[in-house]
Specification:
The complex is a heterodimer of chains A (260) and B (256). Chain A has 260 residues and is an alpha/beta fold. Chain A contains eight helices and ten strands. Chain B is built from eleven helices and no strands. The chains are: A alpha/beta (260), B mainly alpha (256). Chain A binds chain B through residues 50-51, 54-56, 74-82, 84, 86, 88-90, 99-100, 102-105, 138-140, 154-155, 158, 164, and chain B through 147, 149-150, 152-159, 163, 167-168, 171-172, 174, 246, 248-249, 251-254.
Chain lengths: 260, 256
């Protein structure tokens, strides 16, 4: 059974102009350990999808299942990262990384006793994203790309089974963005968590994902599903391979079609 | 950068001295009678003569101000957190608070005197009433401007509202809180002095009033100078405290 499953899920928001349907009859299945990307025109309800899957918002109709159970209220283990790094400026990088551990059980009750082991864990994670020795820095001392690396680490420190990413690299320059694709790729290769990546960047989706879903304009539905079987581990060079370019081209065509 | 005279450090001293020199000069040049505007030299010498009375009454004013201010901090924190916590509490209390704040506190003093008699208690309560509002508003603002995404991150980890408040909301509102303290302490001064001028038998406000009644105009100005000095001192203490407690806000560009 799929790790994340949406069945005929709908969500509408009440607004001043009446009900607005953000998501309508959405069906989606994500396998455990799968890297899934969701692309679509802006305003198609991608962020709504994030909030539905994590249980931050209940669906108006239909069902959301995660890990074999129907979601009824916020899940207590999901790692999330957004376009803004949203680090806490009064905490050092290490203290920022400890934040999820101060909340999620069983770490929450063990944190005080095993502080040292946990700090070592943050150091190890920082090393994997190329930030060894940055633990004592404050967020404002880091560049945007570095902050986003820390944000990724914070999403992963408690080893979540599900990672939700909402355009995490959208605010970065092209080179930094590609660097961070590789960081995420390596983290995923190592830990094989389930990822749902919401993005506007089609190359990003093809480079990272196993499966790509194309959403329709509002109200959002899943229209097309692509399986990306480019060999792994993927290198940045692959972005120039004909097979890669073909998929990007096809996706672009579909998203453009949906926008009309 | 050009090195030389550190104008920025000298500026506050130069301006202050300049103000007194200008004042003195104007008094002499236009031969203003000292019962209209006494020159600072006379004010200071008079302050020296009445140093004991000034000192004693300043301490009383300081005490009532700090007591009222402490009440305001406690009450303001609790109310600010309550308002920032829930939109319903916010909706319910805000109009009442704004209306309350609009009432001139000098008009409240007679009621306080009616209830508590002449003395320190009306002064303490006036200081409290006038200074809690900015604390409430700032703490509530700090809590209310929490990034929704950060809240999502924490809620998706299973954080309760209390977790979010303790880990993020309250530390985040600290710069707002300390910023408010600077404003509140000076307001508390205004409150206690206003109350003392209306109904008290001690304090700088009372001293001002009796000096005026005795036509001791230089002493009236002496009292004002004493108040200004106390005000600057208190403001400075809280400005330093703000830097120490919430210095990250200055460096990270999140200014209250």
């Amino acid at each position: 059974m799929a790790f994340v499953r949406l069945e005929k899920t709908a969500l509408s928001y009440p607004t001043r102009d009446g009900e607005v349907a953000a998501l309508e009859d959405a069906d989606l299945a994500v396998q455990a350990g799968e890297f899934t990307a969701v692309v679509g025109p802006s305003g198609c309800g991608k962020s709504t999808l994030m909030r539905l899957v994590t249980g931050l918002r209940p669906p108006t109709r239909g069902h959301v299942f995660v890990d074999g159970r129907e979601v009824a209220g916020p899940l207590k283990f999901v790692g999330m990262a957004f376009q803004n790094a949203t680090l806490l400026p009064w905490r050092t990088v290490t203290q920022n990384l400890l934040l999820p551990l101060e909340i999620v059980e069983p770490h929450r009750s063990k944190l005080r006793r095993e502080k040292k082991a946990y700090i070592e864990k943050t150091e190890h994670l920082l090393e994997t994203v190329g930030l060894a020795g940055f633990g004592a820095k404050y967020p404002w001392e880091l560049s945007g790309g570095m902050q986003q690396r820390v944000s990724l680490c914070r999403a992963l420190i408690h080893e979540p089974k599900l990672l939700m990413l909402d355009e995490p690299f959208a605010a970065l320059d092209a080179f930094t963005r590609e660097e961070l694709w590789c960081v995420l790729r390596d983290l995923w290769e190592e830990q094989r968590f389930t990822v749902i990546l919401v993005t506007h960047d089609l190359r990003e989706a093809v480079f990272l994902a196993d499966t790509i879903h194309v959403m329709s304009a509002r109200p959002g539905r899943f229209l097309h599903r692509h399986t990306i079987d480019l060999p792994r581990p993927r290198d940045l060079e692959i972005c120039y391979a004909p097979a890669f370019v073909d998929v990007v081209h096809q996706l672009r065509h579909q998203v453009a079609g949906v926008r009309r | 950068m050009r090195r030389g005279v550190p104008w920025e450090t000298l500026a506050p001293w130069l301006v202050t001295i300049g103000l007194f020199v200008g004042w003195e000069g104007a008094c002499r040049l236009f031969a203003i009678p000292s019962y209209v505007l006494p020159p600072p030299s006379l004010v200071f010498s008079e302050m020296w003569v009445f140093r004991e009375a000034l000192w004693k009454n300043s301490l009383v004013t300081l005490w009532t101000t700090v007591a009222g201010f402490a009440l305001a901090v406690g009450f303001g924190l609790v109310l600010g957190i309550a308002i920032g916590w829930s939109r319903t509490i916010y909706a319910g209390l805000y109009p009442v608070m704004v209306g309350f704040n609009a009432v001139p506190k000098v008009a409240v003093v007679p009621i306080l005197v009616l209830w508590f008699g002449i003395g320190e208690i009306p002064a303490i309560l006036t200081a409290f009433l006038i200074s809690f509002f900015p604390i409430v508003v700032n703490v509530a603002t700090g809590l209310a401007t929490l990034e929704p995404e950060l809240e999502d991150v924490l809620r998706a980890l299973g954080a309760k509202k209390l977790d979010i408040m303790l880990k993020v909301g309250i530390p985040r509102s600290l710069p707002y809180f300390f910023g408010a303290l600077k404003v509140a302490i000076t307001l508390a001064f205004v409150g206690s002095v206003v109350s003392e001028t209306v109904a008290a038998n001690a304090g700088v406000g009372h001293l001002l009033l009796s000096a005026q009644a005795n036509f001791e105009v230089p002493l009236v100005f002496g009292g004002l100078v004493a108040l200004a000095v106390l005000g600057i001192g208190m403001y400075a203490i809280f400005a330093v405290l703000e830097r120490r407690m919430a210095g990250w806000a200055f460096r990270s560009g999140m200014n209250a």
